[in-house]
Design a protein that fits this description.
With about 425 residues, the protein is α/β, with parallel strands linked by helices. Helices cover about 35% and strands about 15% of the residues. The chain is built from 12 helices and 15 strands. The strands form 3 sheets. Strands 4-10-9-8-7-5-6 form a 7-stranded mixed sheet, sandwiched between helices. It starts with about 20 loop residues before the first helix and ends with a helix.
């Protein structure tokens, strides 16, 4: 794990510095630390107390507005009126577990599945992306009879016991489990052949240990690895290699899904692929907890023959109402097209910034990675990324980091992000780098 930065540490408040904060804030921080213990994670050198949000903006206790280019959870915009209304209306009528027929849940399943290619026609609803990925891995093992998983070396797929093992960026003091192999992110001008070769080598290494490959699982925008989107189609050779060996391809759409890439609803579609299993989470309900797994009926039937699976709250009526509203907003407000047009403009303008400490700018739609580098050596500059994150916060912009070295700004605003929002970001980052 040498040289890697744990994902939650990329922009984490250091609780040892609470004594340096204003008295009232220091007391709040101490109480939180006493209550939540070591699991408490707060952002920024000086944490923020948020009280409200709308669209692309959040507001703190002092009334300060922040442009949010950090969170992919409120995908159609913070507190979107239509989603809020759908949640409140359904909560006032019925919210119960999933062992009753319910028209809202059925309508959501049908509408969501209509966006997937055949033969992906079965949906299992969960409460989180972590839960979705855990279930997907279990289905894959059942279907293939194999145990091995292949992931990228800075991947993050969630936090159940099994999913943590395929999330190298979450592991601080040890490597993933013996049934997991990690491969470098697909970087460079022609990443397809190199990525496929790395996957084949990982499969051979598993095989040498007597472990057959069950799954290649990737987030098709490679968000935790530093955002690698292009060229479209570069994943095909690696996926085919895994399938030739009897394994499956899982597309983790928690980050690139629901229109984020500006090229259709799903990130895998940019690569001309039909996954064996697709997982979803965060943006599915625009902040309301929900997730899902979409797969082939025969795969799900085989899993259910061996495992009695039931999810109490996955697919509850309130979640389904939220999900229906999200799909409606994406379509009716043209948010995929907005992600494409504003994202294209944004990427072009970022690449045009005259700053010697900016390296590559990569991305698709409204998911963009901007590298900070040392101008003399070209090496990743994580301290500069940390400095920029906190200075931009002072200027009213919320941003985070990603990548193996924590030197990449991870830019993923709500899909209603505008050109004027992009211009505000561009002006701010230019000023930060000028000082």
């Amino acid at each position: 794990m040498s040289g890697k930065t744990e994902i939650l540490d990329l922009n984490r408040f250091d609780p040892r510095k609470s004594a340096d904060m204003p008295v009232e804030l220091a007391e709040r921080l101490d109480k939180r630390a006493a209550t939540f213990g070591a699991s408490s994670v707060l952002f920024y050198e000086q944490p923020i107390e948020m009280v409200s949000a709308q669209g692309c903006y959040m507001v703190d206790r002092q009334g300060r507005r922040y442009l949010d280019v950090y969170n992919n959870v409120p995908s159609v915009g913070h507190c979107h009126p239509r989603v809020v209304e759908a949640i409140a209306k359904q909560a006032a009528v019925l919210n119960i577990h999933t062992r009753y027929l319910n028209r809202v849940v059925e309508a959501y399943a049908e509408r969501l599945l209509s966006t997937f290619p055949t033969p992906l026609s079965n949906l299992v609803m969960t409460c989180t992306g972590s839960e979705s990925n855990d279930l997907a891995l279990r289905i894959a093992r059942c279907v293939t009879g194999a145990e091995g998983f292949i992931v990228t070396e800075t991947a993050y797929h969630g936090n159940t016991a099994l999913v943590t093992e395929i999330s190298p960026s979450a592991l601080k003091r040890r490597k993933p489990a013996g049934f997991v192999r990690s491969v470098p992110a697909p970087s460079g001008e022609a990443p397809g052949p190199a990525f496929a070769a790395a996957v084949k080598a990982a499969m051979a290494d598993l095989e040498a240990q007597g472990i057959k490959t069950a799954v290649l699982i990737v987030d098709s925008i490679f968000s935790s690895d530093g955002i690698y989107a292009d060229p479209p189609g570069f994943l095909q050779d690696a996926v085919q290699a895994v399938r030739d060996a009897g394994g499956l391809f899982i597309a983790d759409e928690v980050q690139p899904g629901f229109g984020r890439t500006g090229h259709g609803l799903w990130g895998f579609a940019r690569h001309g692929l039909v996954p064996d299993i697709v997982t979803m989470g965060k943006p599915m309900g625009n902040g309301f907890p929900m997730g899902g797994v979409v797969t082939r009926p025969d795969f799900l039937a085989r899993f259910c023959e061996e495992t009695g699976y039931f999810n109490t709250f996955g697919g509850n009526p309130v979640a389904a109402a939220a999900g229906l509203a999200v799909l409606g907003v994406i379509e009716e407000e043209g948010l995929i097209e907005n992600a494409r047009t504003v994202g294209t403009y944004f990427i072009e303008q970022l690449r045009g910034l005259k700053a010697e400490r900016i390296g590559e700018v990569r991305g698709a739609g409204l998911f963009i990675g901007l590298d900070f580098v040392d101008p003399a050596s070209g090496a990743p500059d994580a301290p500069l990324a940390t400095h920029a994150i906190n200075e931009m916060k002072k200027a009213g912009i919320l941003i985070g980091a990603a990548g193996k070295h924590g030197a990449t700004l991870k830019i993923r605003p709500p899909l209603c992000f505008s050109r004027s929002d992009a211009d505000y970001f561009l002006d701010t980052v230019s000023k930060v780098l000028a000082h």
